[in-house]
Write a structure and sequence with these properties.
single chain; mainly alpha; 2 domains; 2 strands; 75% helix; globular
C-alpha cells in the first residue's frame, strides 16, 4: 500500500468542517466560536512548524539539535502542568515539580525503550526519539497535572484532619497518606481507561496513523501496545514522583502543614 499524500486543497476542505462548527456555535449562542477558530489556527501553525523542524532533524540526526528540541518540549510541558493546577506551589516549585517529575519519568522510559526494547542505532535517531518522547511527555503531563491538582485541592480541603493527625503525634507522611493515595489514583485513571478501551471502543492515534501510512495492522497493533505500556509506566512513575515531592513540600522540617506555600491560580478560586 502506498501513502496517499495530502494537498493544501485537501486540508482546506477539512477546515470547512471547523468553520461549520464555529458557525453552529455562533448560531446556537454557545460562545466558543472564537476559541474554536483560534485553536484551529494555533494547531495549524504549530504542526506545520514542527513538521519543518522535524524535516531538518531527520536529515541531520544531530544530537545537540535533538537535545534542544527535547528541552523545548519539556519546558512547555512543565508550564502546562503548572497552568492546570487550581492551587499552585509558590515560586520555582510551581514549575519545577512537574518539569522534574516528567524529566525523571518520560526521559528515562524513552531511553530505556530506545536502547533496550527497540534497539535503535544510534539511540537518538529523531524519527524514533521525538515521536516516542512526545507521546510520553503528553500523557505523563496530563497524569501529573491531574495528580498534583488533586493533591493540593484535597490537602486544602482536609487541612483540619491533617493537622489533627499531626497534633496526635503522627508524621507528615502519615498525616497526608490518604490524600496522597487519592491523588495518585486520580492521576492514573486516564491511562487505565485508555488501556481498557483500546481496540474495543477506540483505535489509538499511533495505530491509526501507521495503518493509514500503509503498515500491516498487526505491526501497528504491536507498536501501539508497546507505546501504551511505556505511557502507563511513564505516567505512573511521573505521578508518583510529583505527588511525593509535592506532598513533602506541603510540610516543613518541623512537621508543620504549610499551605501558605500554595497560591490560588486566580482571585475567583
Amino acid at each position: 500500500m502506498t501513502l496517499i499524500y495530502l494537498s493544501p486543497f485537501d486540508l482546506g476542505l477539512a477546515s470547512i468542517l471547523v468553520l461549520l462548527l464555529a458557525a453552529m456555535s455562533w448560531r446556537l449562542r454557545l460562545g466558543i466560536e472564537r476559541r474554536v477558530l483560534i485553536a484551529a489556527a494555533r494547531s495549524t501553525v504549530q504542526l506545520m512548524l514542527v513538521g519543518l523542524v522535524l524535516k531538518v532533524l531527520f536529515a541531520q540526526t544531530s544530537l545537540p539539535l535533538i537535545g534542544l528540541m527535547a528541552l523545548v518540549m519539556l519546558s512547555v510541558a512543565g508550564y502546562e502542568v503548572m497552568q492546570r493546577q487550581k492551587r499552585r506551589y509558590r515560586g520555582v516549585w510551581g514549575y519545577g515539580i512537574g518539569a522534574l517529575s516528567m524529566f525523571l519519568s518520560a526521559f528515562t522510559v524513552t531511553l530505556l525503550a530506545l536502547t533496550v526494547i527497540i534497539g535503535v542505532e544510534p539511540w537518538y535517531q529523531p524519527q524514533y526519539l521525538i515521536p516516542l518522547l512526545g507521546m510520553l511527555l503528553g500523557n505523563t503531563m496530563s497524569g501529573i497535572a491531574i495528580a498534583l491538582d488533586s493533591l493540593t485541592r484535597q490537602a486544602w480541603d482536609a487541612r483540619g484532619r491533617i493537622e489533627a493527625r499531626l497534633l496526635a503525634g503522627g508524621t507528615w507522611d502519615d498525616a497526608i497518606e490518604e490524600v496522597r493515595r487519592d491523588a495518585l489514583r486520580s492521576g492514573l485513571i486516564p491511562i487505565i481507561n485508555a488501556m481498557a478501551t483500546a481496540g474495543l471502543v477506540s483505535l489509538p492515534g499511533m495505530m491509526t496513523g501507521q495503518i493509514l501510512a500503509g503498515s500491516p495492522p498487526m505491526e501497528a497493533a504491536k507498536y501501539q501496545l508497546l507505546i501504551m505500556f511505556l505511557i502507563a509506566a511513564g505516567t505512573g512513575l511521573g505521578s508518583m514522583a510529583a505527588v511525593w515531592i509535592g506532598s513533602r513540600r506541603l510540610f516543613d522540617d518541623r512537621q508543620r502543614l504549610r499551605l501558605d506555600r500554595l497560591a490560588a491560580a486566580n482571585r475567583s478560586s
